[in-house]
Amino acid sequence: MSGVAGILRLDGGRADAGAVREMLATIAHRGADGSAVLTDGAMAMGHRLMRVDERSPMPFAGGGLHLVADGRFDGVIGPEAVTESPVERVISEYRRCGLDFPEQLRGDFAIALWDRAAGRLILARDAMGMKPLFYWIGSRCLAFASECKAILALPDAPRRPCRKRLAEYTRFRFRGLEETFFEGVRRVVPGEILWHEGGSLHRRRFWGPWSGTPTRHPREAHLSEFRDRLLEAVRVRLPSSGPAVIALSGGLDSSSIACGAAHLVRQGASGASLHALSVLPGPYANEMEYVREVCERWDLPNTVVDFGPLRVGHRLGDMVRRLESPFVEKEDEAFGERLFGTVHALGSRVLLMGYAGDEAMTGWAYLADLLREGRWIRFWRETRAFRRGGGPPLEDLIRRVARFLLLPNRLLPGEPSARYHTCNQMEMHVALFNLYQVMTLESWDMNAAAQGVEIRLPFRDQRLIDLLFSLPASVRIHQGMDKPLLRDALKGVLPERVAQRVGKCDYTSFWSEKLEEAGFTGRTFSERTEQWRRHTRAEWEANWFGLTGEKHAEQHPR
Questions:
Q1: Is the dihedral of CA 232, 236, 242, 248 positive or negative?
Q2: How confident is the model at residue 376, as a pLDDT?
Q3: How much of the chain is in helix, strand and coil states, percent to nearest 5?
Q4: Inter-residue contact 524 to 531 (CB < 8 Å)
Q5: What's the CA gap between 14 and 12, in Å, rounded?
Q6: Could you report the per-residue pLDDT of 463-517, keeping only the tens digit for each?
Q7: Which residues face 161 on adjacent strands?
Q8: What are the pLDDT digits (tens) for 212-264?
Q9: Phi and psi at residue 176, in whole multiples of 5°?
């Protein structure tokens, strides 16, 4: 992990390196291992470094090119570069491909590159949105940073809430990806390259999910390719040496990551030392029996974090200031204070999680595709199998299927000429790349950074996602069993009892009780959650803009 910030003067003046240093000071938590500022006339950019391994990006300046980056680079898909430094490899790709260079990169990254000869500032963000990057354009400068608070440190930057985004938050109906909760401050969209040149701002997407007709091969071929891609996604996220912590809930997704990592280490594919970390929220969601299966199978040491008594509203003001938004998950505080803090206490800077497994492996829309194709008998058999396997109630299942049947165009968002070929592809895209997901990843990144930890999610690997979009849904949903691809591909790696488990624990009761303890007293969980959302918005406004939230605070004491 690293932090980046910079200023491009638009009025022909010289960029202020001191202002960039002040921006970096606000995000010093993103890198305690060093800081650097590069200046070149109208451009000044800086970098905070947290070194994880040799793939940690370092700032670059040479040949009229300046680059700072946050994240991890797995490599390039073009010709072999002549240098070994990850950042120099990025520079080589830019020299070879120009503005097409992000298409050649693999990893989780946010990049700022200044090309003096072209007078061009480039901002780019990885396709999966793992690394945040924000920008603001004023009358005299364009500023960018890994976190909004660095931009707001500039004297000329606006410090006003974006009322449109706040209204969407209150209703929990978000539209568009670019706007943040701060007026004028915008995000670089995942999979987007943005560049300022010749007095104008330009942008285009350099990646979109595979949307062709699904490829059909023998099932064993699909299983083999999926296994290879998943294990590679885990391997590149393990440090080359030193400790790595894996969040292990006992569910199928986290167990697959833990077992895959242990399998790779045992084969010598990584020199990392592994440690499992499990959360025990209480009797509502105790999956320790499955956690023990995984740890015993691979001889993994495990640390269990017991939530115990938890006040949901404790230190809420600090949290919304750290995360820069009222978009706070009910469990974010517990994760920030306990999960990420425990990773740091274990001496690790890397946390692997199974998050996004559900979104990547989702498949309800497969039933809609069966109806569209007129395969009525298969539809009826799969529906009955879903119900026998503990799926949702029939009326809920019908509503989900109908939602996709009523969207006949199936256009890719932001790409009017591109279409999904199946409802299943559309479902995956909506699940993986909606604003809720983007903001959740940004919040997690900022929360973990405050503890000196970097989150890595193998299920959001670009190569793995490309494969999943290209597979026929019948491979991913089979005879009412969810995630059969994952279960069958990791045979011999996953403990059999874990591989064959059906369903998972529901945390709703736990969080419902914690909301009640904090004074949110609606009759239903959704009513209590809505109260929490209004209260969190008031806390955010009070902490960032001095707007009062006393009314909500009195009604819902912390």
A1: negative
A2: 84
A3: 45, 20, 35
A4: no
A5: 7
A6: 999 999 888 877 877 766 778 889 999 999 999 999 988 777 766 777 777 778 7
A7: 182
A8: 777 778 889 999 999 999 999 999 999 888 899 999 989 999 999 999 999 99
A9: 80, 155
CB 483 within 8 A of CB 498: no
* Closest CA relative to residue 459, chosen from 481, 434, 431: 431
| Spatial CA neighbour of 426 closest among 396, 457, 405 | 405
Give the separation between CA 129 and CA 179, rounded to whole angstroms: 15
Q: What is the DSSP letter of 491?
A: B
247 vs 402: CA distance, rounded Å: 36
| Type and span of the H or E element at 278 | strand 271-280
* Sign for the pseudo-dihedral over CA of 79, 83, 85, 89: negative
Q: Is beta strand 350-352 parallel, antiparallel or unpaired with respect to 454-456?
A: parallel
What distance separates the 2 farthest-apart alpha carbons in the chain? 71
Instruction: Give the DSSP per-residue string, 469-486.
Output: HHS-HHHHEETTEE-HHH
Per-residue burial over 368-384, b = 16 or more CB atoms within 10 Å of its CB, e = otherwise: bbbbeeeeeeebeebbe
Task: State phi, psi for 104 to the nearest 5 degrees.
Answer: -90, -10
Nearest Cα residue to 322 out of 199, 425, 448 = 448
Q: Which three-class secondary structure state does DSSP give residue 223?
A: helix
Burial class (CB in 10 A: 0-12, 13-18, 19+), 311: middle
Taking only the tens place, the pLDDT of each residue in 77-126 is 554 544 457 888 899 999 999 999 999 999 999 999 999 999 999 999 99
- Alpha carbon distance 477, 392 (integer Å): 15
φ and ψ of 228, to 5 deg: -65, -45
Separation CA 405–CA 398 (nearest Å): 10
Q: Taking 80 as the threshold, does the pLDDT of residue 76 lie above it?
A: no
Q: Classify strands 302-306 and 454-456 as parallel, antiparallel or unpaired.
A: unpaired
Site of tokens 């199998």: 385
Q: How many residues does the chain have?
A: 558
